[in-house]
Structure formats: C-alpha cells, structure tokens
Write a structure and sequence with these properties.
The chain is of the alpha/beta class. About 15% of the residues lie in helices and about 35% in strands. Strands 1-4-3-2 form a four-stranded mixed β-sheet, covered by helices on one side. This is VOC family protein.
Length: about 120
C-alpha cells in the first residue's frame, strides 16, 4: 500500500491555493473553487484541498512536508510572508521541525528526518 494523497478542509479554496503555492506545491487540478490538488515537489504524493463550510476547530490532522534543509526553507517562506508558530527546532526524536498554520488553521510541519523518518534508532525490529 502507498499513500496517494492527503486532503484537508478549507473555507476558501481559492485563497488556500495561493498559500500552498507559496509553500512550493505545484497546482495540478482546479476545476472549481471547491477542490484543488497539488503535486509535491519531491516524490509521488499529492496534496488536495476540499471546500468545507464548517471546519473542525479541535484537534485534526498534522501535515508534515519534508525538505532537505529546514532552516533554509523557513527563511525562504518567511521572505514570502509566511508566519511560523515555532522556529526551526532540533527535536528529541531526531527530526528538525518548524510549525505553522495554514489560512484555515490546519497545522503544518516543515521538517527533515532523513534516514530517521523510517529507521530511527528505536525502530521495532
């Protein structure tokens, strides 16, 4: 089994499109303002946005976008006006991360784990 795509809710798909293009995703489907799909710049995964009148305001999914250099990507995104909740942080689980929210309050993590993403030292054998 392979993860094909993740879809998140948005109250304004048109505005969300601009936000995700700033992050570096390539818009590949937008037939109406209730749905858009993007190609991630690396790998085969896609990411989509679907209109919802009401959003879940508690909890929800956390979306991780991996990049080779978190500090560099965060700097580039800040220059484009993207605001982060946290600065680039080396986490105890061997990942480097920076957290932000999209325009609809969905939590996004820009991160780098490298080999530790699938093979951390504590992986079950």
């Amino acid at each position: 089994m392979n993860l094909n795509q993740v879809t998140i809710p948005s109250k304004d798909v048109k505005k969300a499109i601009g936000f995700y293009q700033k992050l570096g995703l390539e818009l590949i489907v937008h037939t109406h303002d209730h749905y858009a799909r993007f190609l991630c710049p690396t790998g085969d995964a896609t990411f989509s946005i679907h209109y919802r009148e009401q959003l879940n305001t508690e909890g929800g999914a956390i979306i991780y976008f991996e990049v080779p250099d978190v500090a560099k990507k965060v700097k580039q995104l800040k220059e484009k006006g993207i605001t982060f909740m946290t600065e680039t942080t080396a986490q105890s689980w061997a990942w480097t991360e920076a957290k932000l929210k999209d325009l609809d309050g969905n939590t996004l993590i820009i991160y780098h784990a490298g080999e530790n993403r699938k093979n951390p030292p504590w992986r079950i054998q």
